[in-house]
Amino acid sequence: MLLCAAPAGCYSVVGRSLQSGRMGLVGSRLLRLYSSPPGLDDDSFGEDTIYALSTSSPPSALAIVRLSGPDSIPTLQKLTSPSFKVPPPRKMFLAKLFHPKSKVPLDEGMAVIFKGPKSFTGEDVVELHIHGSRGVVDGVIEAVSDSGLRAAERGEFTSRAFQNDKLSLLEVESLHSLLTSQTSTQRVLALSTSSKVVAIYDSWRDVLIKAMSHTEAIIDFSSDSDNTDLQEPELIYGGVLDSVKNLRKTMERHLEDGYKGELITNGVKVCLTGLPNAGKSSIINILAERDVSIVSSTPGTTRDVVTVQLDLGGVLCLVSDTAGLREGDDVDEVETEGVKRALRVREEADVVVEVVGLDGIEEGGDGEEGDDIDLKVFNKADLRDTEGNFDGGISISCVSGEGVDELISKLTKVVKDRVGNVGAGAGAGTEARAGENASEGSEDVIITKRRHREHVETAWEALCRFEVLALEGEAAVDLASEELRVASVEIGRIVGRVDVEDVLDSLFNDFCVGK
Ligand SMILES: Nc1nc2c(ncn2[C@@H]2O[C@H](COP(=O)(O)OP(=O)(O)OP(=O)(O)O)[C@@H](O)[C@H]2O)c(=O)[nH]1
Ligand SMILES: [Mg+2]
To answer: Domain TrmE-type G spans what residues (predicted)?
Structure first.
């Protein structure tokens, strides 16, 4: 439960939201979540100001210490001289910092104020841009703590932004993806999947809520009336049938995105497969630029799967070296297990690269015609005349390095084709607005998380059931209405409009301190 894991500061935000009357859907949900926390009286709400070092550990050229909460600006005043006048927000200014009690100088840095609600957290925020040595950072942190502020928990700045309706759940997830992005494609994807996607899912939910209000009205109307015309679905549902059908088709197109977002987020799985001794381990070592896998002239050397993370053309790839595929009396129990694992990895791979050793071709080792093979690599070109016909594959030599660049560029192309042109439609200003065509812009948006896909799938199933129930006319109108409700709750869960505490619980724990 979020209630247990959430930092104490969360209570204060709920309290102030209530007083200022700014509670949106999220605020009211949180109120439910946080109602009657034992031992906390309402007066303690709004008192809590947090701080954290938002940059990495010293030493570094510069460091940023961030404060958020009602005491941020008074704390800045305490750390500066008594004559210090609070500058206007959003303007950098020179700040000579002193310990508030001992008045020992701490640093000459810069600072900036963001007045709530126009700040990341929605509260008053102060950023101290100081020198990044251990001595300066420790001194400033100690001074801030001695001023009565509390050290922030992991992700607490972002959790406050969420609680103050500055960010939706989906935007929090995108921010997390951005902060953990390892490749350029992940970065572009994270940047392109926030406000635009929120607008699209919100527009879907609007369609469903409108349809629900129509079906609720039918239920009320039919219970007070003897109207016998209400057996015809078209007469009962009117335009609702078409709008729900269109939305269901939009969801289908949305789901048929080739899992590109998940591939970019989780990494494209590339499997090196082939007969023993073909040179798979030699190839993974070349790709990884280090010795990750044992190479030997003994066939059957690799048993366990060895996986490395590589950035190929800006796409995160998980490249696996696997055991050479063979069976027979010579193959011992351990190698048989290795082959089983190799086949499993190949089955689950997004890209299969078959390695054929040119020295093994006479023994029938010229590779398979498997449907799953995306790229064929003829290795040990140094041992053979490479002018031969290699059936569309690439001829390389791990010994001389010949063909290695071509292998990398071909493999990069296969991987990039798999994930498509990510971010091409992002930020193009095609935001779907509530009440307009709910399919608008959704083709440009790809699903980035399994969680989102599961919610869309469940909503889609509910709409399929709605269409079947609608054919039954008035008799099934309340069941049909319930399906619309299920679909709208599922879509609301993606953005965080409805109960998502279980997701939040783990999400904020994955953030770093200071964000
Ligand atoms: N001449 C030559 N030898 C190579 C080349 N690539 C690999 N070898 C040698 O071929 C042998 C097998 O290489 P590995 O990379 O271990 O082959 P593997 O496919 O991983 O083999 P298993 O793990 O047994 O399935 C080693 O002796 C390598 O030095 C190459 O391009 N040219
Ligand atoms: Mg090997």
So the answer is: 267-416
Q: What separation in angstroms does the CA of 130 have from each of 69, 71, 137, 150?
A: 20, 20, 7, 19
Structure tokens at 241: 């049938």
Q: Rounded to the nearest 10 degrees, what angle do helices 450-470 and 240-255 cross at?
A: 150
Atom index in ligand 1 nearest the CA of residue 274 equals 19
Q: Could you give the ipTM of this predicted complex?
A: 0.99
Q: For residue 105, report the distance from its CA to the centre of ligand 1, in Å.
A: 64
User: Which domains are seen in the chain, by residue range?
Assistant: 1-167 (3.30.1360.120), 195-257+433-496 (1.20.120.430), 266-402 (3.40.50.300)
How far from each other are the two terminal CA atoms of the chain, in whole angstroms? 21
Is pLDDT larger for residue 99 or for residue 233? 99
Residue nearest to atom 14 of ligand 1 (CA): 279
Contact residues of ligand 1, CB 6 A cut-off: 276-282, 295-297, 299-302, 323-324, 379-380, 382-383, 397-399
- Work out which ligand 1 atom sits closest to the CA atom of 298: 24
Average pLDDT over residues 21-42: 32
Ligand 1 mean position, distance from CA 243 (Å): 60
pTM score above 0.90: no
- With 80 as the cut, is the pLDDT of residue 27 above it? no
Taking the CA of residue 400 as reference, the ligand 1 atom at the shortest distance is: 31
**Coil, strand or helix: which one is 290?**
coil
Q: Does residue 378 have a pLDDT over 90?
A: yes
